[in-house]
Design a protein that fits this description.
Elements (H helix, E strand, L loop, with lengths): L1 H10 L17 H14 L5 E6 L5 E6 L4 E5 L5 E3 L3 E4 L2 E4 H15 L7 E3 L6 E7 L4 H8 L1 H6 L2 E7 L8 H11 L3 H9 L13 H10 L7 E4 L4 E3 L4 H8 L2
Parallel strand pairs: 8-9
Antiparallel strand pairs: 1-2, 2-3, 3-4, 5-6, 7-9, 8-10, 10-11
Length: about 250
């Protein structure tokens, strides 16, 4: 029960019905409906995103709007919350984490370039997406090293994640950056502790804040590679270059 309350709180969604995602692992309609009915009876308005057969015999995988997943029995009387690992000759493979990475990569790829604040190198060798908060000390430290990232051929795409939440002082500051005529210059000023003119416009900050939560971001800076891998915290340019294999 606590898990479902957490899912509802994180997603911030309240829907009475949902269209579930069908794929190659789709399940019998009657079983699917039984699972839906049991879950919605246990926790009304649960934000389901999909149900499919899992790699575990007798269990089905239920995914939620925030990317979390549980494994549930056919009669929906029991479920297991946690990562699914496959035992391979070369070691353990985290199948659940691989799905998270795929989801992150797909969601990030769907963001319009105009909704990002991008710092591009002369010759791009790799691209990363960074959820950032202008008042975060380590976000500021990362930005001070921007020249080194660019010299290494790493393109940095900023998305907003004001940790204090929508409507906070940090939120207002990052909105001002997204609404500035020169977004890059405004971001640099804010990251150096300076002020920028307060502005309001149609902007993606609140949407990006929610996206970060959906993708499992819990702090800043949060670096997401093109593969969807999440690297939490500040990473020096030399180390990030190594991670990216440049």
């Amino acid at each position: 029960m606590r898990f479902f309350k957490k899912v509802l709180m994180v997603c911030g969604l309240s829907i009475a019905a949902t269209t579930l995602i069908a794929d190659e692992a789709s399940i019998d309609t009657e079983i699917e409906q039984e699972i839906i009915n049991k879950l919605q009876q246990a926790v009304p308005h649960i934000p389901l995103a999909g149900i499919k057969k899992s790699q575990l015999t007798g269990l089905y995988e239920v995914s939620f709007g925030n990317g979390e997943r549980v494994f549930i029995t056919e009669d929906a009387n029991y479920f297991v919350a946690g990562d699914l690992f496959q035992v391979m000759d070369e070691g353990l493979v985290n199948l659940t984490d691989a799905q998270r990475e795929q989801t992150r990569a797909e969601r990030i790829a769907g963001i319009d370039a105009s909704d990002k604040i991008t710092f591009s190198p002369e010759i791009k060798k790799a691209s990363v997406t960074v959820f950032t908060d202008v008042d975060c000390g380590y976000c500021q430290k990362l930005h001070r090293e921007m020249a080194n990232y660019l010299d290494a051929g790493i393109e940095v795409n900023y998305l907003a994640y004001p940790r204090a939440g929508v409507g906070s002082s940090s939120y207002d500051k990052v909105v001002a950056a997204w609404c500035a005529e020169d977004k890059n210059a405004a971001m640099t000023r804010l990251k150096s502790g300076q002020t920028v003119e307060s502005k309001s416009c149609e902007n993606p900050v609140a949407e990006q804040y929610q996206l970060a939560i959906d993708l499992g971001v819990r702090g800043t800076p949060a670096i997401i590679l093109e593969s969807g891998q999440l690297v939490s915290g500040y990473v020096p340019a030399a180390k990030l270059t190594e991670i990216l294999g440049l």
